[in-house]
Amino acid sequence: MTVITNIEDLRVLAQKRVPRMFYDYADSGSWTEGTYRANEADFHKIKLRQRVAIDIETRSTRTRMVGVDVAMPVALAPVGLIGMQHADGEILAARAAEAFGVPFTLSTMSICSIEDIATHTKAPFWFQLYVMRDRDFIERLIDRAKAAKCGALMLTLDLQILGQRHKDLKNGLSAPPRLTLPNILNMMTKPRWGLGMLGTKRRQFGNIVGHVKGVENMGSLSEWTAKQFDPRLNWGDVEWIKKRWGGKLILKGIQDVEDAKLAVDTGADALIVSNHGGRQLDGAPSSIEALPPIADAVGSKIEVWMDGGIRSGQDVLKAVALGAKGTLIGRSFVYGLAAMGEAGVTKALQIIHRELDLTMAFCGHTDIRNVDRGILLPR
Length: 379
Description:
Blueprint: H1 7-17, H2 20-26, H3 34-44, E1 63-65, E2 68-70, E3 74-76, H4 89-100, E4 105-106, H5 114-120, E5 126-129, H6 135-147, E6 152-156, H7 166-171, H8 181-188, H9 191-198, H10 218-228, H11 235-245, E7 249-254, H12 257-265, E8 270-273, H13 287-298, E9 303-307, H14 313-321, E10 326-329, H15 331-340, H16 342-362
Parallel strand pairs: 3-10, 4-5, 5-6, 6-7, 7-8, 8-9, 9-10
Antiparallel strand pairs: 1-2
Helix pairs in contact: 1-15, 4-16, 12-13, 14-16, 15-16
């Protein structure tokens, strides 16, 4: 039996257990994948100051993100299709997050629906919104999130058009998978995954199929999705969505100080420094590189969070030291889900929490809320 001690162990197991098209969907970037790799690699350039002979017996990683008490400054990021990484994946991830005490964010492009998550959880989850040309559908989607008592709406701003992701194009990514000979042969090598998918009815985009006129099956859905992502999305739409929603609003996909200032002007509660996991503009800076100037410029006016490349609790601590009031993990929990279901998500959270706690102690701190750039060596 494999002894799992870090996120990389979960990734290796996930690659063995999940069909190639869905593993590649989670573990790839756009074009050359340079930004995707930099998201992770740039954390390694940041060096920590070790301190000694400080009383570190009593420590706390607890803090708040948009007014929500969290066990650590980490939330599960919205990731599409995770119900294809493991049967009922979004439900399992939401339950694991709730039990651990961190927020879960459901993607618009999830397999399990908003209503599925609400039925299987007690804690308010967050909902991530993509803006489509069909504004009537978007209004009803927001209303469904309200009815499900979602605690915040996360509006993604950096997917007006889709970045070119070579692996997805070559694999013919779809949900459920297209039954081409290569896909069938690959799925035959993943019996655990296949049995799980046979045991669930959730195999399509639960937030969309049956909720949009003319979309009753995957054929019409793929055509609809290709036409529906809205390249006209602008700051005026953010104001409209904020008013329609009426609750806490988080803006995801900020990479530039100028855009961060515009985000503040909307009255949003938080912004997320993010390059969509390196899946949109290849050649953009890593999220951890983009974070400090944005935190310096607007961190006193809005909660600044970041996502992209976090594979350890040390990465979380470095992000907090550079000004992030919260972080989001995507691939790290998806690897756990793909490898071991709900227990794998819990394992990923336990790994990150332990690394965060120990590293904070080595740096001479006992309260995550007091961590600042003083724990880092000058670059």
